[in-house]
TrEMBL record:
Keyword Secreted assigned: no
Name the record gives this protein: SBSPO protein
Tagged with keyword Signal: yes
Protein source organism: Dicrurus megarhynchus
Lineage, opening ranks: Eukaryota, Metazoa, Chordata, Craniata, Vertebrata
Pfam families for the chain: SBSPON_C, TSP1_spondin
Origin superkingdom: Eukaryota
Residue spans crossing the bilayer: none
Record's keyword terms, sorted: Disulfide bond, Glycoprotein, Signal
Gene name of the record: Sbspon_2
PANTHER family (UniProt xref): RPE-SPONDIN (PTHR20920), SMB DOMAIN-CONTAINING PROTEIN (PTHR20920:SF4)
Length: 213
């Protein structure tokens, strides 16, 4: 009679004599991954997608097909119309507050000094790279400690038109939203913080004092 390729016969011991030849195990075969798509939504922490399709379905107990869709985290800083997203998505670039005195002197000499502002943040997460800064210009990063409150000054040279804000200052962030920062001079030193408040009159202490770039 006809031979049916049903792998259950191996358990019930009633396979046709030519079962192994006639019913060769064929595993699933899939294509290569497609290119990654764009982010699902602009101006949000969301995901992107890549796909693949089935070239050969599994047969006769062959290996099942793997996942045909894969997602990865994604953020786009520009809308579909090409305008910049809200400030809270842009990582803040910071450096030591000691750089501020020289910058203020230079701005005053040019007649361009204008009032800035300061923002207090609570440091939530810090990468280990901040503690291993070997160069003298990066030693200030060792003052970054989880849980500490830091004061970051937005001076005139870092103000962006027309908003007159510093990138990454968290002005448009929601309450208790985690914001990202990156230390200038050491790409391995970065982390997250939460915005506490803005101070229009700056009085940042000498320690735990930083600048927006």
């Amino acid at each position: 009679g006809p031979c049916y390729c049903d792998q259950a016969c191996a358990r019930t011991l009633d396979c046709c004599h030519d079962y192994a030849q006639a019913c060769t195990v064929i595993p699933c075969v899939v294509s290569q991954w497609s290119a990654w798509s764009g982010c699902a939504e602009p101006c949000k922490t969301t995901y992107r997608v890549r796909m693949r399709h089935i070239i050969q379905e599994p047969r006769n107990g062959g290996e099942a097909c793997p996942a045909l869709e894969e997602r990865a985290g994604c953020v786009e800083y520009w809308t579909r119309q090409g305008t910049e997203c809200q400030q809270s998505l842009i990582p803040a670039l910071i450096t030591t507050g000691g750089f501020g005195k020289a910058r203020k002197k230079r701005a005053a000499a040019d007649g361009n000094e204008r009032a800035g502002y300061c923002v207090e943040f609570q440091l939530m997460a810090i990468t280990p790279g901040c503690l291993h800064s070997q160069h003298s210009y990066a030693r200030w990063m060792r003052y970054l400690r989880e849980g500490h409150t830091v004061c970051v000054e937005c001076q005139h040279p870092a103000l962006h038109s027309p908003s007159q804000l510093c990138y990454g200052d968290g002005t448009s962030s929601q309450k208790n939203q985690l914001l990202h920062w990156q230390a200038v001079g050491n790409h391995r030193c970065k982390g997250t913080w939460r915005r506490i408040r803005q101070l229009d009159t700056c009085s940042c202490p000498s320690v735990h004092s930083f600048l927006f770039i």
